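My hope is that you will study the record closing this message with an eye to the fold:
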Amino acid sequence: MVMFNNLMGLGKAPQQESMKFQRPKRNEIVMYDSAKAKRTIIGKWHYCMSCPGWNKLTDKRVVYSTWAKKDCCGGSLPWGRNLDTYDADIIIDASARQTLCQVCRGEGDIILYRLAGGDPSNPDTTHLLSDVPRMFDVFNEVTFELSKINLKGHAGKCLGRRMGAMVMNMPAGYEGEPQATKDIDTEVVFYDSRTAKRTLLGKCCNMDCCYPTVAKITSERVMYSEWDIWYLCDEPLKGLCLPYYCCRGICQDVFPCCTFLRPQLGVDAEGNEAEFAMRAQRKVDSGIADCCCICPTGRNAMFWDLDIMVDIGARQKCKQLFINEGDLLMHRLPGGDADSTETIFKVRNVPEVFGLFDDLSYELSQMDLSHFRQNVIGQKMMDE
């Protein structure tokens, strides 16, 4: 009977090693995964109730899911989900934004600026990662990876063209292999406004209640954060309805039915630039009443690569002489910062500003422009 069963294939098969599918080892650093991120109690409640999308950000790729929306009664309702991905190499810039409700939850939104045409399935030039826990930590990791892009050669060519040198415009990789990103693991911190040593009067002028701009300058990048300020004296009637605006903002941020009605603030780069220019001009024209009649509505975090800085200066006002501080003026090449078109970036209230000016000017002197100078002199000799 046993022999019959073996002939019919009904007996026990010889023991073989079970072939299990083994995933290849992924050589990537996971900077953020919305499904595994640690959130506060309020953040967990909001994440479960607000119909979130899935986002995973690594140094190689970005994988995300979005809700397909259907217009209904002037708003949008979830209507299925889509899954998409794109290469992290097409990301050229990043910024972040926090509302007051997100500050309480310890979360924020990160905006990734992408090269147009790099993602065939999605032509948008921006990608929004909403409700990211430890937003500043993730933003720090993302900007550090972006700062590894070596732009000093391109900055030198731009300066050489301004000097009058003949600069050949060739496609990428024409003269050899494409220039790889810099292999850096550490960076030198030149200035951090949070840990900078100030005088007693300087500490009083830069207290947190004054909502100062936080800036950090390293050997690879510049990061800064600004508060969105609502000046009540400009709109006194709306200032009387402050509880109404606060309740409306909380409802739009908390309730899941309002998540799809909430505007995607900070995605439009042109709108951002106009808003930043208006805010900067408003700070310059501020009066005595604006020191106390203000209300914060949120804060932004920005970044740009230090390689696009081509000149530097410093300035001290008479009132800054008493607190031993000054303003640092950093001249940038246009087009290097995707979320800002300003060519002069000002770092305000820097203690010992001339010492920082000395350090950064030495870094600028490492940009080799001798061959461009030789090119210009040679052309002048040939013309004469």
